[in-house]
Amino acid sequence: MTKPFEHIKEMQEQMKFETDWLAKHAEEYDTDEYKAHIARYENISNQFEQQEGYQYESKIKTVLHGLNFTEDDFNRPINDFSGGQKTRLSLAQMLLNEPDLLLLDEPTNPLRYGDDTMA
């Protein structure tokens, strides 16, 4: 489910690298190199916030809960799911990509969850 957020995860890694570097070289706070690392961190951090990087895990959980998956399902291997559950996982993946338009085949085939039906 994290594939749509790979760029977010890369930014997290870059921010961690920069904060680790800054912590390790704190005594050099007045050098041009240190200031360049601060500028890189600020740039990445701003992009991260603009792309809602702090919310990506919440988005995944919201979509999965909306498709009737439980917290226990989040770490299950995909092969453990039924065919219908795998279909819902594919739908979740598409929704997380936030397409401008999503056309679904068989519009009269409802998604059923227990007693609830979503058309």
TrEMBL record:
Gene giving rise to this polypeptide: yheS_4
Domain of life: Bacteria
Keywords annotated in UniProt: ATP-binding, Nucleotide-binding
Molecular function GO terms recorded: ATP binding; ATP hydrolysis activity
Residue stretches making up the ABC transporter domain: 35-109
Protein name (record): ABC transporter ATP-binding protein
